[in-house]
What does this fold into?
Amino acid sequence: FERDHHWTPTGAKASAEAVVALLKGHPALGGQPRLDHLTGPSSKADRAWVGSRGNELQNHCPGSAVPDTVLHLFQTVVTAAPAVGLLDEVPPPPVVVIGTSNSTEQYNFGGYLAQGLGVDVFTVEEGGGGPIAPLQTYLRSDDYIHGRPKVMVWEWPVVNLRLKRDGAPRLQDKATYRQLIPSVYGPCDAPAAKAVTQVARGEFKLLEDLEGLGAFGSGWYIYLQASSPALTEFTVVSEHVGGTDRYHVPYFGRVKTFGRTYVELSESTPLRSVSMQVPGDAEGTIEAHLCQVPG
It folds into this structure.
């Protein structure tokens, strides 16, 4: 668009075609059942589009006349798919798109991608939250934990490299990775230690007597499952031999946590205990696991 940082549906199609060229014949998608797709005009009406920069101009200069741009909408539908029996288990989509508002339905990026690859594509997008927020949401969801994709496409607009949003996670911050990396591993099946604790105001213990486990550094992480998703901001306190690490888990409304939190250990000495500090009133329970990175 002339007055907008988003791509047009034509730009979304060109971007999808470039991704398809990279993924065609990739071993991760080998053996996937073929789905035939067709893209055409959407059943929804075309939209009059002022654009993000047009909106900024109107906000700063009330009464300014900004001409509309017509946004022609397209949609992609499945036209042929392998037969599935009533008792057959439907596999999760092999390709997942994690994206910003560029990946919303109106641009049809996921649809063009599905048509080019000939597979089912699942899209997780969050407008206005930057590219990291939807990734954090997806990695904590049941969709990811119980049905991991073969390929993940992460849509990252260049404009987000310089934008700063209050509370939004940023790729430049080391603290962001301390949640992202362990969330890729997910909840561990055989935790080295676990406990369920009643949430209380202030600081309270989650796990104790851990020194003998030899847990330290990025090879270990803490997984927390809150009974109430309303518990969204707190500090995880890891006491190590010779020091204490306080990791603040901030609240950002565009990240859906599903009550799940991951924190990678950062200290180079053995972990002794894990506590939580809650700034206000809270209720419910916290199930805490100490997990070792697989492999």
Q: What stands out?
A: Helices lie at 9-23, 52-60, 109-117, 132-139, 142-145, 174-185. The first strand starts at residue 36 and ends at 41.
